[in-house]
Automatic annotation (TrEMBL):
PROSITE patterns: START. One of its GO terms (molecular function) is lipid binding. It holds the Pfam family START. GO terms for cellular component: cytoplasm. This is START domain-containing protein. Transmembrane segments: none annotated. Residues 106-297 form the START domain. It comes from Cannabis sativa.
Length: 391
């Protein structure tokens, strides 16, 4: 959901030059800070190998030239039960445990609590001993059914209309009995990184009006690995979607709660990614609800289902008693809150000084002007500078 696009959302086309050029105010300490920093050309030989630079005219070699599109070429001869086993009962059990915060993992650190008139959003993060940071979010949409929200997040064809990072999506295999799918995504990354390819297995379980939607990266040898777009192997993004009482206090279950759990290894330094996510999270989240409301109107007008949305209606039914047995057979994982300043200190401890300088340049040069104001752009740079002085 939101966290899938948050880090990508803040790394957009460079706008800092436009900001500086259009500013009529005297140079600030922040602008002087940037003016004295090394050029991007000098930094590109020093930054980590995850940063893939294009040619001088901005065109990357072997870049995907296909237009944004959704294919449905699921002509696989593999038996349906083999497709369904790609995402299986073990994945459901894992999702149930993290939904109930009983997976035995590290404590969750609260990052954000924001709301609009028709949407509420909370987010947490935790850092496992190995692997990338993990994110948990709770979004509540007013006047939306679980079935509508389930279809919305599963519908790749409609996603292309509101998620401008998704430039290619296709169904490689599907199971008509369970609705399980193997899909291929290509997501657009900013100018200094190559695009990313995802091979994803996904499936939905239903218990009453609650839907457990699992999506995860899978090995898929039949699609050859290419240098570009770069394949993301470690990917997990799963939801629990269920009805909740409206914030209006009328006692009606007319709102929909979405609990999202997400982590992936995009090949970007994790400490830098954590700072980026915190800066761009709310701006990216706010862009989801307009897409949902457009989808709601399209469905109300009788617009036909896409293939992905049709498969979202084919679910594996499980009983509430079965889910309770899973929840009871696991350990607690507490949720804790920490002040933002403490988070910043923790995140700055292990960032090399070179990454601080490079990260400030990359963030400032690629933050989307429509998402974050000039003040926030310079605020990010100041935070990197403060971290650098402490190293």
């Amino acid at each position: 959901m939101a966290l899938v696009s948050v880090f990508l959302e803040i790394f957009r086309r460079p706008t800092i030059v436009e900001v500086l050029a259009s500013s009529s105010s005297p140079p600030t300490s922040s602008s002087l800070y940037f003016a004295s920093m090394p050029s991007l050309n000098s930094l590109k030989f020093q930054l980590p190998s995850c940063v893939s630079w294009g040619s001088e005219d901005g065109i990357q070699e072997n870049a995907l030239a296909e237009p944004a599109m959704v294919n449905s070429d699921s002509g696989s001869s593999r038996p349906a039960n083999e497709i369904a086993s790609i995402v299986n009962g073990n994945d459901l059990e894992h999702l149930c445990r993290i939904v109930e915060e009983k997976d035995g993992g590290p404590a969750w650190i609260k990052m954000m609590d924001r709301s609009t008139q028709t949407m509420g959003y909370q987010a947490w993060r935790r850092d496992p001993e190995t692997g990338p940071p993990q994110y948990r979010s709770r979004t509540v949409f007013e006047d939306a059914s679980p079935e509508l929200v389930r279809d919305f997040f599963w519908d790749d064809e409609f996603r292309m209309k509101w998620d401008d990072m998704l430039i290619h999506a296709s169904i490689l295999e599907e199971c008509p009995t369970t609705g399980a799918m193997v899909v291929q995504w290509v997501r657009k990354f900013p100018f200094f990184c190559s695009d990313r390819e995802y091979l994803i297995g996904r499936r939905i379980w239903q218990s009453g009006q609650a839907y457990y939607c699992v999506t995860k990266g899978i090995p898929y040898p039949s699609v050859p690995r290419r240098s570009k777009p770069r394949r993301v192997d470690l990917y997990y993004s799963s939801w629990c979607i269920r009805p909740v009482e409206s914030r209006r206090g009328d006692g009606l279950m007319t709102s929909c709660e979405v609990l999202l759990f997400h982590h992936e290894d995009m090949g970007i330094p994790w400490e830098l990614a954590k700072l980026g996510v915190r800066q761009g999270m709310w701006g990216a989240v706010k862009k989801i609800e307009p897409g949902l409301r457009k989808y709601q109107k399209a469905r109300a007008s009788g617009e036909p289902f896409s293939r992905c949305a049709h498969l979202a209606h084919i679910n594996t039914k499980v009983s509430a008693d079965y889910l309770k047995t899973i929840e009871n057979d696991c350990q607690d994982s507490s949720v804790v809150e920490e002040h933002n300043n403490t988070l910043e200190k923790q995140e700055g401890k292990s960032i090399p000084k070179l990454l601080v300088i490079g990260g400030a340049v990359l963030l400032a040069c690629s933050l989307d002007q429509g998402l974050l104001t000039k003040a926030v752009i310079f605020g990010v740079a100041r935070r990197f500078a403060k971290i650098g002085r402490r190293l």
